[in-house]
Write a structure and sequence with these properties.
The protein has strands at residues 13-16, 19-21, 28-30, 34-37, 52-55, 60-62, 65-72, 82-89, 96-101, 105-110, 115-124, 129-130, 135-139. By secondary structure, the protein is mostly beta strands.
């Protein structure tokens, strides 16, 4: 049995066939041509987790004026950089008001006797996006 060991590069197509010759080199026979493709490096990226609510608490009562919306974002990929898409409105579902926040807090002005809805979508640097749940609070 004859064999050969080669080191192959990733992400390339390879073709091979076997040619045999008799002892006097006057009769050759070739096999069909075979092919295979070596895999490239795998890219693994997990979508970030949905953001966790910090404040104001779900269905809470807050005072009118300036309040901070706060959340915590996380990702299974520890080196991922996260950005946030914030939706906020008196209307359900809330409309996007910021598309690329890097902070996990945002200050809004709220008026008395109104209910507000908000959510945070979390996006990693590879574009994987987790759609957040809608939270709400009411102003005294």
């Amino acid at each position: 049995m004859s064999e050969i060991t080669l080191t192959l590069e990733k992400a390339l197509a390879y073709y091979w066939k076997v040619t045999t010759t008799n002892a006097t080199n006057n009769k050759k026979t070739s096999s069909e041509t075979f092919s295979f493709y070596t895999q490239r490096e795998g890219i693994v990226n997990y979508a970030p987790f949905i953001s966790e609510l910090v404040s104001p608490s779900e269905n809470s009562l807050v005072d009118q004026g300036s309040i901070n919306l706060s959340w915590i974002g996380s990702d299974a990929d520890p080196d991922d950089t996260l950005i946030y898409e914030l939706s906020f409105s008196e209307i359900f579902p809330p409309a996007v008001i910021e598309e690329s926040l890097s902070e996990e807090t945002y200050t809004v002005l709220v008026e008395s006797a109104k209910t507000y809805y908000w959510k945070v979508n979390t996006i990693d640097q590879d574009g994987a996006k987790s759609i957040g749940q809608v939270w709400s609070f009411t102003v005294n």
